[in-house]
Amino acid sequence: MTETQGVNAMECKLVPSICSYCGTGCGVLFEVIDGKLQGTMPMKSHPVNEGKLCIKGWHLHEHINSFMRLKSPLIKNNGRFEKATWDEAIQTTAQRLSSVVERHGPDSVGVLVSAKITNEENYLAQKFARACIGTNNVDHCARL
Fold first, then answer.
1. Under a CB-based contact definition with an 8 Å cutoff, are residues 10 and 34 in contact?
2. Domain 12-63, CATH 2.30.29.30 — does that match?
3. Beta-sheet pairing, 74-77 with 80-83
4. What contacts 68, CB < 8 A, 6 or more positions away?
5. Which of helix, strand or coil describes residue 125?
6. What is the DSSP annotation of 3-49?
7. pLDDT digit string, tens, across residues 3-41
8. In the chain, what are the domain boundaries?
9. Cβ atoms of residues 74 and 63 within 8 Å
10. Distances (CA, A) of 42 to 22, 70, 117
């Protein structure tokens, strides 16, 4: 009989990724045990961080397993949040945003982007604000 016969062997793997806390782009390795994300480690061979991580990077995995994390879109109806499909949420958001712009003009809308998304996503958000909505009211909070 081998060591693993009769014993449940754990499946462990390291999954390379990029830290999502800021726009620096540090390389991380996610520790996945039996299909569940358990930890974050720095990627030593990554040219950006060369095996180092800030304190937020070390805890990157924690928000994924949080019981408070939203797992589906919510739409507020009659003062209460209700689960919705992605199509319903996108359609509702588009209709309500269009309504605000029609009633109050494009400069009644502001877009706040985040240090927790990539530079490319921030670029797309400001492009959406300027080209689609028609406002220059774009701000960014880079403080972590």
1. yes
2. no
3. antiparallel
4. none
5. helix
6. TTTTS----EEEEEEE--SSTT--EEEEEEETTEEEEEEE-TT-TTT
7. 555 567 889 999 999 988 877 889 999 999 999 999 999
8. 12-63, 71-104, 106-144
9. no
10. 15, 27, 19
Give first-to-last CA distance, the chain, whole Å: 53
Q: Is 81 helix (H, G, I), strand (E, B) or coil?
A: strand
Mean pLDDT of the residues in the chain: 90
Structure tokens at 35: 């299909």
Whether 100 and 109 have beta carbons less than 8 Å apart is answered as: yes
Tokens found for residue 92: 């509702």
d(CA 40, CA 129): 34
DSSP structural state of residue 128: I
Residue whose token pair is 């397993």: 65
